[in-house]
Design goal:
The complex is a heterodimer.
Chain A lengths: L6 H28 L4 H10 L17 H14 L1 H21 L2 H12 L4 E5 L15 E5 L2 E12 L6 E11 L7 E8 L5 E3 L13 E12 L3 E2 L5 H37 L1 E2 L2 E2 L4 H31 L5 H29 L9 H9 L9 H12 L2
Chain B lengths: L1 E3 L3 H4 L6 E4 L2 E3 L19 E3 L1 H17 L3 E6 L5 H10 L3 E5 L9 H15 L3 E5 L10 H9 L3 E11 L2 E8 L2 E8 L2 E5 L11 H7 L4 E4 L1 H4 L31 H11 L4
Parallel strand pairs in B: 2-5, 5-6, 6-12, 7-11, 8-11
Antiparallel strand pairs in B: 1-7, 3-4, 8-9, 9-10
Classes of the chains: A alpha+beta, B alpha/beta.
Chain lengths: 387, 267
């Protein structure tokens, strides 16, 4: 048992912390207010190497590990979770499946730009009536004259509509159910393919600095070599990738919980009531103590889940699935409580957009929804318990 | 501190090898704690001296413009490897750490003798130092090093230009700058304003793992510690600033302020 980060992991965390404080945080308020995607920040994150952090050097990655990615996502999210989710989705959902399951040609064509942050790739799983319930997927792809023809719709897709969005991997039914579940495969659709429509941006409650759109596919044809991984591999092969995404969202949640604690502690030491800083009132102290404790527990869970996930080496074990579900559930709910208490500690000012905690409060709710709701995580845990 | 080597005679002014020395200091964001013998407590959070970071950045920019290898040299306890590693993550090529229990609390002269011996072994054509370290702030090591290495020194540089074997610097003064030049081999002490340090890239951090840090002791350099040239005899707290006088404006405030300034012999 050793809870010490390696010196590389510490160095990566430190440089991400500096970068987040000096580059991401100063821009966060304006991006949020104007609902703007931070192109300049994404460019700098690319130069820093964030988009290639956990990938092999062969395609331009930094050769770091998954825990390092979690540390990076935590630090970036501490400054702006909208930027944090841009990174998380680009790496865990966009590049990772291509890196893990793509052919040599697919990797050589797409990964260098994606790992350098010059381009973004997105992942289309969720549909109007299917998400974690993947068997209900309605999007279809048929092989016609050597081309996959995709028809259907996807919802809530991150990073698909920016100026640098290169394409999306969609899950689609490629053969009807033969008794059991339908055959589901993953198909890569480059931006600009006829019949691939990126619809108008959502009006979101938070994460305003991130890019999210619904997608529709209308007789959208791509060459058959755009199939990602094996036909019918669909969810089985993506289970591993999605597991990583879940832990990464937990890391994002820890970053936001830490931001809530940072802001609240600093405010509580400055704001005075009844003749003393409010940090001297036990009512406020207890809130801060709980926030600090829960944030640290969530962080420890993320580290443990990340290390376990790293050891699974492409396979999903029950232990990794259990820890991923637990850390995602606990960290997201911790961040929600932290944001709630942060606004409460700030009192009336917490309700005003002049303080960052109002943004944290708007941004935090999605943590309990994205990459599997809290209810789905509880369901998974219960299933693994044998219920 | 930063050392750069130039083999200009071979390459017509291209830098073929750059060496950088660095110092690990207590984090400027933490409070200063002294040991019983009045030397600085070094067991808490430590970082690469922010001034040295600027020197490393300048060295890397020179390398990018003129080619060459950047080598970091540091004197300090074994954890000082982290400071070297930081510079390696930024892009320097390798490091040398002089670490010896006898060197604890070394004064400026001993520090300069040790560094000079290590630098000599690298046969540099140019040495760049921070003007002064963040923690000791004596500012004595760069000139001592120049003397021991037999190099001309170009001090307080805010800009460095390389023209063949001629090195030209903009030397910061109180009201402007001087342009000063010398032929290599040369020692330059740089200001913090010379270059904004880059973030160590994540690739750089990972690549730094496999870069060499050679660790040597006093014996390897053939140096006898000797008696210290300086010791701290005692120290006292700086006088705390007294509260100023607050003048309420009852119509005579200007006169009162003038009186205060006259008494303070400012007017």
């Amino acid at each position: 048992m050793d809870f010490q980060l390696t010196s590389e992991q510490q160095a990566i965390r430190d440089v991400c912390r500096d970068f987040a404080r000096e580059v991401v945080a100063p821009a966060a308020e304006e991006l949020d207010r104007n609902h703007k995607f931070g192109y300049d920040i994404v460019r700098q994150m690319g130069e820093l190497g964030l988009f290639g952090l956990p990938f092999s050097e062969e395609y331009g990655g930094a050769g770091g590990d998954f825990l390092s990615l979690c540390l990076a996502i935590e630090e970036i999210s501490r400054a702006d979770t909208g930027v944090g989710i841009t990174l998380e989705a680009a790496v865990c959902l966009g590049a990772a499946p291509i890196h893990d399951f793509g052919s040599k040609e697919q990797k050589e064509r797409w990964l260098p730009d994606l790992l350098a942050g010059r381009k973004l790739w997105s992942f289309g799983l969720t549909e109007p009536e299917a998400g974690s319930d993947a068997g209900a997927t309605k999007t279809r792809a048929e092989l016609r004259d050597g081309k996959w023809v995709v028809n259907g719709a996807k919802q809530f897709i991150t990073n698909c509509g920016t100026d640098i969005s290169a394409g999306v991997t969609v899950t689609a039914v490629t053969a009807k159910a033969n008794g059991g579940r339908p055959e589901i495969s993953a198909i890569m659709v480059p931006t600009g393919t006829p019949g691939y429509h990126i619809l108008e941006s959502y009006r979101k409650l938070g994460w305003h600095s991130s890019d999210t759109h619904p997608l529709s596919f209308e007789d959208c044809a791509v060459p058959d070599e755009y199939l990602l991984g094996e036909r019918g591999g669909g969810f089985r092969q993506f289970l591993h990738t999605l597991l990583g995404g879940r832990i990464a969202i937990a890391a994002l949640s820890v970053g936001l919980a830490q931001a809530c604690l940072d802001a609240s502690l600093s405010y509580a030491k400055e704001r005075r009531s009844f003749g003393v800083p409010i940090s001297k009132h036990q009512a406020v102290q207890f809130k801060l103590a709980d926030m600090a404790m829960e944030t640290e527990i969530a962080r420890t869970m993320v580290y443990r889940a990340a290390v376990t996930y790293m050891k699974t080496d492409g396979e999903t074990t029950d232990e990794a699935r259990m820890l991923a579900a637990m850390c995602k559930l606990y960290a997201s709910e911790t961040s929600k409580r932290a944001a709630d208490q942060a606004v409460q500690i700030h009192g009336g000012y917490g309700f005003m957009e002049d303080y960052p905690v109002a943004r944290y409060w708007r941004d935090v709710k999605i943590n309990e929804i994205g990459e599997g709701t809290s209810e789905v995580q509880r369901m998974l845990i219960a299933r693994l318990l044998g219920c | 501190m930063v050392i750069i080597e130039l083999f200009s005679s071979l390459t017509g002014g291209c830098l073929v090898k750059i060496v950088v020395t660095v110092k690990q200091v207590p984090d400027p964001n933490s409070s200063t704690v002294l040991e019983a013998d009045n030397t600085l407590a070094r067991d808490k959070e430590v970082v690469l001296d922010p001034g040295d970071e600027c020197g490393v950045e300048e060295a890397l920019q020179l390398k990018e413009a003129h080619g060459g290898e950047v080598v970091l040299v540091s004197m300090g306890p074994e954890p000082a490897k982290d400071a070297i590693r930081k510079g390696l993550s930024m892009g320097a090529d390798r490091g040398v750490l002089i670490s010896d229990a006898q060197l604890a609390g070394a004064d400026a002269l001993l520090t300069a003798r040790v560094l000079a011996a290590a630098i000599k072994a690298e046969a540099p054509d140019m040495v760049i130092c921070g003007t002064e370290s963040y923690d000791g702030s004596t500012g004595m090591v760069p000139p001592m090093l120049a003397e021991l290495l037999g190099m001309p020194q170009l001090t307080i540089a805010k800009k460095v230009e390389v023209d063949g074997s001629t090195i030209k610097v903009h030397r910061q003064t109180a009201d402007g700058y001087q342009i000063v030049e010398a032929a290599t081999p040369v020692l330059i002490s740089v200001t913090a304003g010379i270059a904004e340090p880059r973030y160590a890239s994540l690739k750089g951090i990972m690549a730094a793992r496999s870069k060499e840090i050679k660790q040597i002791g006093l014996g390897d350099l053939g140096i006898e510690k000797g008696e210290p040239a300086e010791t701290i005899e005692g120290l006292s707290q700086a006088e705390t600033r007294k509260a100023g006088v607050i003048i309420q404006d009852d119509g005579t405030a200007v006169d009162q302020i003038i009186q205060v300034l006259v008494q303070a012999k400012v007017l």
